[in-house]
Amino acid sequence: MREVPKRAFWEDVHFGGSLGLNVNNGYFSGYVAPKAIYDFNAFASGGVGLLGSYNNTSRHSSYTIGGSLIGLLRPVNPLQLSAEFEEHYVSRDFKLDGANKTDSYWYPGLFLGLGYVTGPVSIGLRYDVLHDDEKSIYANALMPFVTIYF
User: What are the structural domains of the chain?
Assistant: First the structure.
């Protein structure tokens, strides 16, 4: 019987992630999220990511650091279903009426998404089912995404 050659582990690992930048009239926001995923087969992948962001306005500044666990399913080409659990450490400073307020806490997010995959790029929408208007670092529970893996 002929043995089928096995693929090396690293042949199925892909690195990539997302970047974001917004500079507008005294407002700055930057976001970086490197990720690594492993393709179990042509339909399923799983991985981990790191997260970091910084925001600054004249009345508010914040930074976050954290990590994520990622699950991807591709039941029909080119559609991709995703689930990503994020855990953020959040530190915020507010300047309100001459007084400063500092707030630090851990914040979870569980995103379920649908994307369109073309080559190494996936584009789509994701929804945070744990979104909390008071604590979330994101303005909305629903957000677009663009992710690139190499």
Answer: 9-149 (2.40.160.20)
